[in-house]
Design goal:
This protein is α/β, with parallel strands linked by helices. The chain has a single domain, classed as Thymidylate Synthase, Chain A (2-Layer Sandwich). It is 40% helix and 23% strand. Helix 2 crosses helix 3.
Length: 225
């Protein structure tokens, strides 16, 4: 049995009522859930997704550009969170499309797809986002971008494609919505590509969300209420 998005929502509501807070590095109140694991069966935990931004971010990921100015050109403005992560030239580490599609990071999407086609029962169809070198790269040239996603592992079971998305850290307000959309984009694409090359047909299955630290900042407590 797995928790659902609704269960996670109730957890944060309860913690807010109890005023069970931790402090972030600025000293602001934060509600945390360590080791969160649930079926991501909704596209939002709190609030409404910004589908215009989500579409722009996915297009940016597909471009594989590591400069937030490319995102600005697509969306029309530079989101504050990305400006905070980038160095003075606008460079970041966390273009997820580059991490899974590019030759630089070993074409992980292609290998994942090939693994599933060759062995649908496989347990190693995985795309790895984080890396040991992030300890140096997250702050080089004044960046502040320690990649939040650790890995995504994909399974085919009962003719359905399931994904387990493992996060180092995830903001339950904005981060979850955008990361959920990216994971679903990859799942949909994998199903289309698999069905094109493989003999049998599959459908999109469940998205399982595992987060080392799922959190909400005090500036968003009003959404929890």
């Amino acid at each position: 049995m797995h928790m659902t998005t609704s269960d996670i929502r109730e957890y944060f509501k309860t913690q807010l009522k109890k005023e069970n807070f931790t402090a972030d590095r600025t000293g602001a109140h934060t509600i945390e859930l360590l080791g969160a694991s649930f079926v991501a069966d909704e596209d939002s935990i709190f609030g409404t997704p910004n589908y215009e931004y989500i579409s722009a971010e996915i297009e940016w990921y597909k471009s594989q550009s590591t400069n937030i100015k490319t995102l600005s050109d697509i969306y029309g403005s530079e989101p504050t969170a990305w400006k905070y992560s980038a160095n003075g030239h606008g460079e970041i580490n966390s273009n997820y499309g580059k991490l899974v599609f590019s030759e630089l990071y070993h074409e992980q999407y292609r290998h994942t797809l090939q693994e599933l086609i060759q062995n649908p029962d496989s347990r190693r169809a995985q795309m790895v986002y984080n890396r040991p070198s992030i300890w140096v790269e997250h702050c080089e040239n004044d960046k502040n971008d320690f990649i939040c996603t650790n890995a995504q592992t994909v399974y085919i079971r009962d003719n359905k494609l399931h994904m387990v998305s493992q996060m180092r850290s995830n903001d339950a307000i904005y981060g979850y919505k955008n990361d959920y959309a990216w994971a679903k984009f990859l799942m949909d694409r994998l199903v289309v590509d698999y069905n094109f090359y493989a003999d049998d047909a599959i459908q999109v299955g469940n998205l399982y969300w595992q987060v080392m630290n799922l959190h909400i900042y005090s500036k968003h407590f009003h959404l929890v209420k």
